[in-house]
Amino acid sequence: MSLxxxxxxxxxxxxxxxxIERFMFWSNIKKSHGKLLTLLxxxxxxxxxxxxxxxxxxxxxxxxxxxxxxxxNVKRSIKGxxxxxxxxxxxxxxxxxxxxxxxxxxxxxSLGLLGTIVGLMRSFSGFSLVSEFAKSExxxxxxxxxxxxxxxxxCISIVGSICLSFFRRWMLEEVFILEKYVSDFSAFVGCEAxxx
Length: 196
Hints:
The structure is a single chain. This protein has helices at about 5-40, 60-70, 75-90, 100-125, 135-195. It has one domain. The protein contains five helices and no strands.
């Protein structure tokens, strides 16, 4: 068995832990999202009317709403830039561990290929040391051991790529919801200011 199985195993553990953490993060957001949106819109965007739950502390929509609720006194000229910065800050937790998962996804096939090359080199170096009858057995067993690392590395890459595509899609959906909420909030505050 190749020496690179151990790094591939560590890489797969890191990738798996990133995927589990992200799936838990997104399931928490999706679980609380509908009720939170309803409460925010029914309460006319007032965060004070919400009953604070532990599960909402890290939800981007809750963070955005709590920041926006303190923004009534901000001057109109500053609001546009402030909203952009606020959106970027709220989006940041959604990208956590994505870079690490991307690194794992890219490193998997490379380490697998390296393991294959090392295994083939070992196999062919032992080729000259055995008798004529055992040569084919040495080469075939060496090649099968060497290809295990490639398969392992490709599996890491495939699982990581699938997870990353889900996470990116969910992030785009969340950003769309946040931007809609910001525009609705701005319209509401604008109407409220005109009424006064």
